[in-house]
C-alpha cells in the first residue's frame, strides 16, 4: 500500500491461486460494500495474522492440486479461526490441506451445471434445492476432510460444496463469483454477513471520508505536486487531494499540444473553476513540435514525449522551490491493477510499492519526492465512481482510454501543426458521432456497456495521399482511417460492427468538414493480430 491512502480496518483477503480469478472475487465482495484485497497464494499464516482480515476467500486456479509445484494453502491459515471460503481450486486446496482427497472426475464439467442441495447449509441458505451454477474443472474433491458435510452435488461431482460450520470453513467446487451462478451473490452475502458478521459499510461516502483523512494525515502542512494529464486517474487524484488539502496542491498540466480537440480547455475549466487548487497550465506545445519535427519512428516519438514531460514538470517544481515553497510530495494516479500486474505488492508491504514506482520516474539528481498514491487500492470502475462522487464531469470520468503520447502516435510519419489540426478536427467528428451511437445503444438496451458498445474510437492520419474529386476539382489529399473497437481490457479487441448509416455519416462529415481530407477508410482488423493504435 502506498502512502496517502486509507484501507478500512474490516477487510476480506482473497488468496489468489491464478491471476484473473482473484480480481473478479475481490470485485464481487466490494460490490457488496465490503473492502477486499488480493494476496498471493504463498502467503503464510503469520502474514495473514498481520493483515488481520475478517474473512479469507480462496480463489480458483488453473493447476491440479497434485501437480508438481501446485500451489497450496498453509494449513495453519485454516486453523486461525478466521472464516474461510474456497472456490473451485480453493475447495480442493482446502480439502487436501485438511486430509481429504481430490481425484479426476470421469468427465470434467465446464459451463452451466445443475446442483442439488443436500441437507442444511449456512452458505446456500435461502437458495433453491436445485439451481444453476458455473463449473470449470476436471478434478474434484472425492473425500471430504473429517468434520465436513457435503451440502450439494451434481451428477458428475459428488462434492459440489462442503462446509464445517463449527470451524467456519466453507467451500464450493463451482464459481459463485461468476454471474452465471444464479445465486452466487446470495452465497457471498451469506458468507460475509451471516457467517462472518461483517457490515456493508464500505460505501462511496466512507471511502471519500477515509481517503481525505489519510491524505491530510500524510501531508500535514506540506505541499503536493501532481502531473495532470486530463485522464481519469490523475483527475480523480486531483479532485480527492483538492477536497483534502485544497491549495496545498499544485496541479501541473503540461500541455504538449497532442491532446484531442477541446481537452486542454476542459481540464483548465474544471481545475480552475470547479476545484480550488493551484493550477499551472504549462504551454509546451511549441517546444514539443520542435522536438518532434522530422521524427517518424513511433518509439522515438514516445521517448521524446515522455522525457520532455518530466523536464517540463521538474522545471515547475524547481520554480516552486525557488519561491521558497518547496514541495515534499508527488501525487500519482497509480491504480490497483497497476499494482497487481506489476507484482509490486505482496501482502500490503509499503516499501516494495514505493520502490517499484519510483523506478518508473526518472527523478533528476538532487530531486526527491515522497509519493502519495491515494488510488492504489481501487479498480478502474471504482475510480470512476469516486470521480463522479467528487463532482468531476462525465467527460472526464467516462473518458475513453487515450495514450500518453497522444495524437503524435496517431499521425503516421512526422508530426506537424497542420497535420495535428486535421487530425483533431476529424477525431472530434468521430467522437461526436460514435458518442451518439453509444448513447443510442444505451437507450435501446439500458446498458452502458452493452455487447455492441464501442469501447475506443478515434481517427488516424496516415502518411499518404490519394486522388479524389470535389466539385469539378481533382484533389490530391490525405485519407483518415477510422478505428473503432469493442474490448473490455485492451488486451484483445475486435473491430466494431458499426451500422452503415453511422459509417456513412462519419465519412460524409469528415470529407465535408475537414480541409485536406478527401477519403475515409475503416480499419477492420482485430487485436491480435493488429494493435488498437497504429503506432
Ligand atoms: P495497443 O495499441 O497496444 O493499445 O493495442 C492498447 C491500449 O493502450 C493504449 N495505448 C497507450 N497508452 N501510452 C499509453 O498511456 C502509450 O504509449 C499507449 N499506446 C497504446 C491504447 O490507446 C489502447 O487503449
DSSP summary: helix tally: 16
Round the mean pLDDT to the nearest integer and report it. Answer: 92
> What is the SS-derived class?
alpha/beta
The fraction of residues in strands falls at: 15-25%
Q: Considering DSSP H and I runs of 4 or more, what fraction of the residues is helical?
A: 25-40%
Rg over alpha carbons: 27 Å
Give the uncertain stretches in residue-range form: 344-360
| Unique ligands | xanthosine-5'-monophosphate
Distance between the termini: 34 Å
Biggest sheet strand order reads 2-1-3-4-9-8-7-5-6
Q: Mind summarizing the main beta sheet?
A: 9 strands, mixed
Shape: globular
Number of strands: 19
Task: Describe this protein's structure.
With 535 residues, this protein is an alpha/beta fold. The radius of gyration is 27 Å and the shape is globular. It is built from 16 helices and 19 strands. 36% of the residues lie in helices and 22% in strands. The two termini are 34 Å apart. The chain has helices spanning 20-31, 45-51, 75-78, 89-97, 184-195, 204-219, 232-245, 263-274, 285-292, 298-322, 336-342, 350-360, 380-389, 394-397, 417-445, 500-513; strands at 11-16, 35-40, 55-58, 84-87, 101-117, 130-143, 149-153, 161-164, 169-172, 224-228, 249-255, 278-283, 329-331, 370-372, 456-460, 466-470, 473-486, 494-495, 517-522. The longest helix has 29 residues, at 417-445. A hairpin with a 2-residue loop joins strand 16 (466-470) and strand 17. Helix 7 (232-245) crosses helix 13. It has a nine-stranded mixed β-sheet, sandwiched between helices. The structure holds xanthosine-5'-monophosphate. Xanthosine-5'-monophosphate is lined by residues 302, 401, 403-405, 456, 490, 527, 531-533. Xanthosine-5'-monophosphate (XMP) binds at residues 302, 401, 403-405, 456, 490, 527, 531-533.
Amino acid at each position: 500500500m502506498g502512502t496517502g491512502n486509507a484501507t478500512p480496518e474490516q477487510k476480506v483477503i482473497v488468496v489468489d491461486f491464478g491471476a484473473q480469478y482473484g480480481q473478479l472475487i475481490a470485485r464481487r465482495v466490494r460490490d457488496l460494500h465490503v473492502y477486499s484485497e488480493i494476496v498471493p497464494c504463498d502467503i503464510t499464516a503469520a502474514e495473514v495474522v498481520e493483515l488481520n482480515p475478517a474473512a479469507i476467500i480462496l480463489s480458483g486456479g488453473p493447476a491440479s492440486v497434485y501437480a508438481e509445484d501446485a500451489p497450496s494453502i498453509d494449513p495453519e491459515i485454516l486453523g486461525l479461526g478466521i472464516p474461510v471460503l474456497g472456490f473451485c481450486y480453493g475447495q480442493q486446496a482446502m480439502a487436501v490441506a485438511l486430509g481429504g482427497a481430490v481425484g479426476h472426475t470421469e468427465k470434467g464439467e465446464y459451463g452451466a451445471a445443475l446442483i442439488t442441495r443436500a441437507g442444511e447449509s449456512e452458505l446456500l441458505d435461502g437458495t433453491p434445492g436445485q439451481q444453476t451454477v458455473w463449473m470449470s474443472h476436471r478434478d474434484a474433491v472425492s473425500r471430504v476432510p473429517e468434520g465436513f458435510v457435503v451440502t450439494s452435488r451434481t451428477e458428475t461431482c459428488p462434492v459440489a460444496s462442503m462446509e464445517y460450520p463449527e470451524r467456519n470453513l466453507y467451500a464450493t467446487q463451482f464459481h459463485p463469483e461468476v454471474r452465471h451462478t444464479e445465486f452466487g451473490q446470495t452465497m457471498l452475502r451469506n458468507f460475509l454477513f451471516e457467517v462472518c458478521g461483517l457490515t456493508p459499510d464500505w460505501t462511496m461516502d466512507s471511502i471519500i471520508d477515509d481517503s481525505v483523512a489519510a491524505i491530510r494525515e500524510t501531508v500535514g502542512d506540506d505541499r503536493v505536486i501532481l502531473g495532470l494529464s486530463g485522464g481519469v486517474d490523475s483527475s480523480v487524484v486531483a479532485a480527492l487531494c483538492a477536497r483534502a488539502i485544497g491549495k496545498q496542491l499544485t496541479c501541473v498540466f503540461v500541455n504538449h499540444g497532442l491532446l484531442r480537440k477541446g481537452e486542454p480547455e476542459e481540464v483548465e475549466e474544471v481545475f480552475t473553476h470547479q476545484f480550488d487548487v493551484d493550477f499551472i497550465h504549462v504551454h509546451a506545445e511549441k517546444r514539443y513540435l520542435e522536438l518532434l519535427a522530422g521524427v517518424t519512428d513511433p518509439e522515438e516519438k514516445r521517448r521524446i514525449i515522455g522525457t520532455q514531460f518530466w523536464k517540463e514538470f521538474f522545471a515547475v517544481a524547481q520554480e516552486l522551490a525557488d519561491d521558497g515553497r518547496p514541495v515534499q510530495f508527488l501525487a500519482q494516479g497509480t491504480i490497483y491493477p497497476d499494482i497487481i500486474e506489476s507484482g509490486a505488492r505482496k501482502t500490503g508491504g509499503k516499501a516494495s510499492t514505493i520502490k517499484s514506482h519510483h523506478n518508473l520516474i526518472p527523478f533528476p539528481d538532487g530531486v526527491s519526492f515522497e509519493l502519495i498514491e491515494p488510488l492504489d487500492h481501487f479498480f478502474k470502475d471504482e475510480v470512476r465512481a469516486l470521480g463522479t462522487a467528487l463532482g468531476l464531469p462525465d467527460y472526464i470520468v467516462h473518458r475513453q482510454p487515450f495514450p500518453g503520447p497522444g495524437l503524435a502516435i496517431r499521425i503516421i510519419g512526422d508530426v506537424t501543426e497542420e497535420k495535428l489540426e486535421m487530425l483533431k478536427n476529424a477525431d472530434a467528428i468521430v467522437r461526436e458521432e460514435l458518442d451518439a451511437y453509444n448513447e443510442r445503444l444505451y437507450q435501446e438496451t439500458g446498458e452502458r456497456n452493452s455487447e455492441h458498445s464501442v469501447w475506443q474510437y478515434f481517427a488516424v492520419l496516415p502518411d499518404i495521399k490519394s486522388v479524389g474529386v470535389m466539385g469539378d476539382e481533382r484533389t490530391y489529399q490525405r485519407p483518415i482511417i477510422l478505428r473503432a473497437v469493442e474490448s473490455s481490457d485492451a488486451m484483445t479487441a475486435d473491430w466494431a460492427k458499426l451500422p452503415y448509416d453511422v459509417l456513412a455519416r462519419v465519412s460524409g462529415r469528415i470529407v465535408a468538414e475537414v480541409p485536406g481530407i478527401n477519403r475515409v477508410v475503416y480499419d477492420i482488423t482485430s487485436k491480435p493480430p493488429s494493435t488498437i493504435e497504429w503506432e
